[in-house]
Amino acid sequence: MRTTIGYTLESIGYVVGAQGLVSFASQTFFGTEWGWLHKIVDLASTAYLGIVALGLALVVTGVKTRKAPDRRRAA
């Protein structure tokens, strides 16, 4: 179960981080809206960097959860 949760958090983190990065880059460098995140929330371009940080935090948490040792011991 721990492995499944780790992979799930990691996968969600990659998607959230990528969408934050795409939204930041599109607003900052091109003045347009790319991705699907702008359809959910309307944020300033620098706030999308927080979304990127959230995605990275989810990836790190997923990797740590996935690699955590199993605490159950066979008797």
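the 2nd protein, sequnce then structure:
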Amino acid sequence: MDIDAWVWWLIGAVALGIPLVVTAMPEFGMFAVGAVAAAVVAALGGGVVLQVLVFVILSVALIAVVRRIANRHRLQRPELATGVDALKGKQAVVLERVDSGGGRIKLAGEIWSARSLDGTQSYEVGQEVDVVEIDGATAVVI
């Protein structure tokens, strides 16, 4: 029994999909897509040289395009701040006197321990302060 070339290409695509799942390396996925394209060329009656050319050109093109897009996204900072980064720059209300030794504020609906950024400055109950950073579980305010 002779197996058609397109079946071999599909077997190759599945074989390339296994390391994609195991290693999470997207390059294997690009090669698998190239193998599927080569299987289509083989099923349509294309020669071995055309099948290999389609596999190589499509795989390399996908790797080049996807890598460029991935690098661009990796270098961009997220526009949406989350977690403690989202609290920086927010205003809070002093609940207990805040100085360099500590105090309490209400920040984003929660009660936080706080200390003043300037060791000589203190803030009284009811005063609004700005959060400049979060140091562990303590808000540093001015």
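The mean pLDDT is 92. The first helix runs from residue 5 to 23.
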